[in-house]
Amino acid sequence: MTTVPISNIRNFSIVAHIDHGKSTLADRLIQMTGGLSDREMAGKEQVLDSMDIERERGITIKAQTVRLSYRAKDGKDYIFNLMDTPGHVDFAYEVSRSLAACEGSLLVVDASQGVEAQTLANVYQALDNNHEIVPVLNKVDLPAAEPEKIKQQIEDVIGIDASDAVMISAKTGLGVPDVLEAIVTRLPPPKGDRNATLKALLVDSWYDVYLGVVVLIRVVDGVMKKGSRVRMMGTGAAYDVERVGFFTPKMQQVDELGPGEIGFITAAIKEVADTRVGDTITDDRKPVTEMLPGFKPAIPVVFCGLFPVDADDFETLRGAMGKLRLNDASFSFEMETSAALGFGFRCGFLGLLHLEIIQERLSREFDLNLIATAPSVIYKMKLTDGTEIEIHNPVDMPDVVKIAEIQEPWIEATIMTPDEYLGSVLKLCQDRRGSQKELTYVGSRAMVKYDLPLNEVVFDFYDRLKSVSKGYASFDYHLTDYKPADLVKMQILVNNEPVDALSMLVHRTRAEGRGRAMVEKMKELIPPHMFQIPIQAAIGGKVIARETVRALRKDVTAKCYGGDITRKRKLLEKQKEGKKKMRQFGKVDIPQEAFIAALKVDS
């Protein structure tokens, strides 16, 4: 393998909104540079989306990297390191670390749909990383494509020059050779000193059954050699490098990686937790003094409890979560118990899609049947004794008299929607206690910025947004800060016993509505017993909503015929006494389906 000078290396990522054709463009680039033969590509769309779940949903979850060789029109050989990134807001941190390893980005915009909320978020991230950006208009072969209009839109909304945007159709391959030339001529080469001490950025890591932990790195200075001893500066651990190589997307081994190159190393590392994403890798004998600026760690935003439907599956679930954690450092969990649901785990996720993906992977890859409790967020509580605590499970909330102030997280949401749905989108945000920050127009599309409490968003905001806009609105958000809020803990009591799995923190103004919806739902779901069952929603000692499940009754007066009314009354009184006694000592069996359905209650 001949070494290519650093001036002939190009590291770039593809950024775009969901469904604008990133992974398809990546396929074409791999095909046209001969990364995979046509036979290997045959019958496989989105080569880089390796998980079944990515293929089925047509989304990218893990950022992937590929090294391509290209001979340009100037007759020189170039090396391209391409990073395919996810477009979805929950995986934004995957995007941020891919961008940190590159110098440039291809901004892919659908020529029929235009700029979307996520396009903006990802472009701003690329600009934060000082990227050179080449706009690419995809799907220009569609009848609905309006390239000139979209170019103008890119300039208006994002503020980058789009006059020489590359026009392509990633599906048919039209215009893709121009993209390859644009990468050579318009993106900058990496900088780095071959003779300096080794300094490399840890971009990603995942677990391989045969090789242990595979670490994806971007070499900044120096040379990463096979057999050398390296140190992770964040954790202080040292390892001997066993393999060095890159992906074409197949693994190819080489002896060394020079400055500006992206590749992988393996070093008999057992746990992915030992390789912190964003860490700096250096030579163990003469380490560098300054670490590279890492990435912000992925902070869980949404929490929920996961419990096995069958209690015997608990150990399987523990093992499965450990394995998923190996490949997804952003997923965190700790054990918890619940009187209603038994043993399970409290898990932290980056967002609702992340939660859904993890849940689906658990049930699919490990054949587990799970119940998830209502998603909640982290609340900060200032106590009367001056201490501050964080709470992500409503059950752990301290006594009300000890709390001085409760703060909840707020987000800034950017929503882009066609004009005709603007009214219903604004109403939805208002209903969720949002406050509008700005409203601008881009052609016939409105772009609104709202401050919203995250608590209102995690429940079902995304689904509601899609339904009120018939699927046309796009949504992106980031956490801003914590603000004081008038929150109360609402409990659901069944036969005067609190059910911990159903308790939640809600805003005082919304408590009654949410409580009423919950008890009505539970009334339908709990089967009748031999005694009547009151179902109540309560805040502290105050009941705010109630429904009653009627008792099953036997007609005890059936054998009474004729005679005085007092005989019947005596039998009914006797039955009433029995029912009262049963209600005191009877246990209510709440079926598991009732929990699952009640937690899905739509506000």
Automatic annotation (TrEMBL):
**Which residue positions does the secretion signal occupy?**
none
SMART domains hit by this protein: EFG_C (SM00838)
What subcellular compartments does it reside in? Cell membrane
Please tell me whether the keyword Hydrolase is annotated for this protein: yes
Q: Where would I find the Tr-type G domain in this sequence?
A: 7-191
HAMAP family per the UniProt record, alphabetical: LepA (MF_00071)
Q: What is this protein called?
A: Elongation factor 4
